[in-house]
Amino acid sequence: MPADFRVMDAETPEFEPESFDALVTRNLTWTLPHLEKAYRNWYRLLTPGGVLINFDGDYGHAGPQENWKDNLSHRNVTEEMKLESDSITAEVAKSQGIRPLWDTRLLMDAGFERISLDTGAYRRIYREKDEFYNPIPIFVIAAYKPY
Predict the structure, then answer these.
(1) DSSP H/E element including 113
(2) Which terminus, N or C, of the chain has the lesser number of Cβ atoms within 10 Å?
(3) What's the average model confidence in pLDDT over 84-113?
(4) In whole angstroms, what is the distance from residue 53 CA to residue 106 CA?
(5) pTM for this model (two decimals)
(6) Residue 14 located in a structural domain
(7) CATH number at residue 102
(8) Considering the domain boundaries, does residue 2 fall inside one?
(9) 114 with 143: CB under 8 angstroms?
């Protein structure tokens, strides 16, 4: 089946309630200024028993990119772009708690259950320091909408 790509607000996606059995995100939620709103809306989109799987990192609290010594995925980014990215990251971080514990609380508040957290996923994802290597530890959260 071909994929249907759409561009829309990630915090308020324009789909009917209970449209999905699973939602998977990667390196998205750290950029959202109203993550609690996103989690509530994503809960609404899941069918009963559906799962949200979120791969992300605490980028907002990791510090400026100059501190990411081994970040090979950003080695060709200009200094101007790094400064702009650091500014945006610092602004977003002001509204966020320490992740992933903060995410767990927000997910519970949104109604999710059976929340599992894997804080060692980055060790399996980045086994080698190749061109995609990112030194910020990536976590995975799986959270289920109850039946």
Answers:
(1) strand 113-118
(2) N
(3) 92
(4) 14
(5) 0.87
(6) no
(7) 3.40.50.150
(8) no
(9) yes
Q: Which region holds residue 49: left if phi is over 0, alpha if psi is between -120 and 50, else beta?
A: left
| CB contact at 8 A, 107 and 124 | no
Judge if the upstream peptide bond of residue 17 is cis by omega within 30 degrees of 0: no
Element (H, E) at 106: helix 101-110
SS3 assignment, position 98: coil
Handedness of CA 38, 44, 46, 48 (dihedral sign): positive
Give the domain extent around 51. 20-144
- The closest alpha carbon to 9, from 32, 40, 43, 36, belongs to 32
Looking at residue 88, its pLDDT comes to 84
Average pLDDT over all residues of the chain: 89
Q: What's the domain count of the chain?
A: 1
